Amino acid sequence: MEFATFAARAGEIDAEDADLEIVDLVSDLLVAAGDAPAGDRDELEIVSRFVQGRVFPAWEQTTLDIGPSACYEAIARAAGRNVTAADVEDRLAEVGEIGAVAASYEFGGQRGLGAFGAGNGVDDLTVAEVADTLEAVAAAEGAGSQDRKVDLLFGLFNRCESEEARYLARLVLSEMRIGVGEGTVRDAVADAFGVPAEDVERALQVSNDYGRVARVAREAGLEGLAEMDLEVGRPVQAMLAQAGTVTDALADWETAAVEWKYDGARVQLHHDPTGETRLFSRNMEDVTNALPEIVEFAEETLETTAILDGEVVAVDDGGEPLPFQNVLRRFRRKHDVARAREDVTVRPAFFDCLHADGEDYLERPLTERHDRLEALLADGETAPEAVEGLSLLWLTDDADEIEAIDADALEAGHEGIMLKDPGSTYSPGRRGKHWRKRKPDVETLDCVVTGAEWGEGRRATYLGTFELSVRTDDGFEPVGKVATGITDERLAELTELLEPHILAQDGQEVDLEPAVVFEVGYEEIQRSPTYSSGFALRFPRFLAVRDDKEPADADSLERVRTLRS
């Protein structure tokens, strides 16, 4: 296929606003690419990527590694001796879009100088030639590589007509922006080659390669798509979560799978005992070299091929989790990894199994995937809570139990909890209702502290659980207890603040004079026979001490009733 043909079709798509018409236009483009005379390259694969603004498959690590200034230089050289990169940049400031800038120049005047590796400068430019040259741009490295990249791009622009230059410039700078997303290409492949969209979707999930899926759909149809599976070493997009509440999760699923939510970085582990172990970030960047201890863990623990999903968490010398920024220090380290490893220790917490011993698990229920994960990591004798690298999974229909799990997660220094549908499959790249991050508190109350409990273990000298009450005409009525969202340092401060107000003590429990006001967040207010107020705060979290408020200024039971209604 001539690149001019691709550019003309891209222009038609760019001018169309309606989604269905865009799908039809992309479908026609794919059919045309599939019908093109066979050459050294399958241009259907190339066009399937180009139309999205991609040069390489989504799972590949390869990039052009070329910045705007180099692209401007190549455009300027192809435009003529009187044009400079600064001129291109100035015109971009006026026009606002690099494709329009490139299309405004008349290229081809430098053909007598040669095209520096992009052909003889005479024949029409083809899609395959553009792909070959851009791959050469990506491959250029070492001394003089930037000059080589500019030479190669100059050679391409020098052979372009106006519309070809428009979409070449956009492609080079990943600014295609013609309204074609992944869903559009999925539907276009289905339409072009007569296969169900859901089967194309599944093939895309396991391959993460739109070009390959398009070719298989054309050559082998539905049967070929069904045979596509995950491959160890080729990353897929991570399944994502949306915000949600415990109440909604239990209403939708009856039973919820609950996990700790770690303050770490997502990592996808690909392990082959007879080959390589590789690690990929949430964005599918290869981070293997930056995390040697995770590779060592996999090589020492896993005896079969596996693809696992999880988090990498930074920990201190005592094994306590550190903030996310510490993990980033490891992910970003390209050199002197050994020293970085000494400075920041990381540990894995795997929560899902996508593939094991030649079998894909994407379409298995969450509980089955987690059982397989535990079997991979455990030795058969160790209790789950002691299995290194395993994120625990609790199944419950009890909101109180979920609240206790959430409290334990926060106590351990993590972010909170994840709620998951126990029967859900794994959908790469999807952000759906099957995984939910517990929604952040959206409402607050100012409550009076009327009681407390001494902590346990290292917190035995601190008041650690606080009874929260609201004003009534006759005094104060309790609406819950808060023990989460409080660091050890803050507990020490709160204990010092509240101890002078202790009225009575019975074992670990103390009664407090109503003197201190806490601002607390919560997920919802429920009716409850547990407290004399008749209400209970679900998932209350300490936010701050209201030094500016007296107990008489705290929120009232009437406000609680209003918020509940």
Can you tell me about this structure?
The chain is an alpha+beta fold and about 575 residues long. The protein folds into three domains: about 5-170, DNA ligase, ATP-dependent, N-terminal domain (DNA ligase i, domain 1, Orthogonal Bundle); about 240-425, D-amino Acid Aminotransferase, Chain A, domain 1; about 445-565, Nucleic acid-binding proteins (OB fold (Dihydrolipoamide Acetyltransferase, E2P), Beta Barrel), CATH 2.40.50. The chain is built from 20 helices and 19 strands. It has helices at about 5-15, 20-35, 45-50, 70-80, 85-95, 100-105, 125-140, 145-155, 160-170, 180-195, 195-205, 210-225, 245-255, 290-300, 325-330, 335-345, 365-375, 400-410, 490-500, 555-565; strands at about 240-245, 255-260, 265-270, 275-280, 305-315, 345-355, 360, 395, 415-420, 430-440, 445-455, 465-470, 475-480, 500-505, 510, 515-520, 525, 535-540, 540-545. The strands form four sheets. Strands 11, 12, 13, 14, 15, 16 and 19 form a seven-stranded antiparallel sheet that branches. A five-stranded mixed sheet has the order 1-10-9-2-8. The chain has a five-stranded antiparallel sheet with strand order 4-3-5-6-7. Strand 14 (about 500-505) and strand 15 form a beta hairpin. About 45% of the residues are buried. Mean pLDDT is about 90; it is low at about 110-120.
What Rg is obtained from the alpha carbons, in whole angstroms?
A: 30 Å
What oligomeric arrangement do these chains adopt? single chain
Number of helix segments?
Answer: 20
Taking the alpha carbons of the first and last residues, their distance comes to 65 Å
CATH architecture of the largest domain: 2-Layer Sandwich
Report the CATH superfamily of the largest domain: DNA ligase/mRNA capping enzyme
User: Overall pLDDT, averaged?
Assistant: 91
Summing up helix and strand content along with how strands pair, one would put the structural category as alpha+beta
